[in-house]
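JOB MANIFEST
job_type = single_chain_structure
chain_count = 1
residues = 138
[input]
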Amino acid sequence: MAFPRSLLDRIESPSPPGLRDLSGDLDETMDAIQKHLQMMLNSRHGNSSTVPDFGTSDFSDLYRGYDSVETLQRQIRESIRRYEPRLVDVEVTFVPREDDAARVHFEVIGSILSEDGETPALFRTVLNGAGEITVKRG
């Protein structure tokens, strides 16, 4: 069963009394996952006192030559596998872009599980020189 909105979103804006959406709208679910990935991938290890490994390491090291694309790819994949349970069978792929060599691009491919089965999901991430990641739906 996929929950379309995160727990914090549901607390912030609860459904009207008597209504309970168990399956959710796919677009709503995709938007919620995109929002969570954006927040998670821009969080750094150690910033959360309750979950010290939430997020990723500082990606700006990539631009200084201290880290590798493969390491970032692995960190993104592991962070998603651990902290975004609505997305399963996750693969993260580096996408070389000659037209945008100043930024690093990845595709996040996975499936969203629901009562109706699996739905493929694609998110595109862009890492800029400041170490910030933008996440967009495929």
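[summary]
The two ends are 22 Å apart (CA to CA).
The CA atoms of residues 95 and 105 lie 5 Å apart.
exit_status = 0
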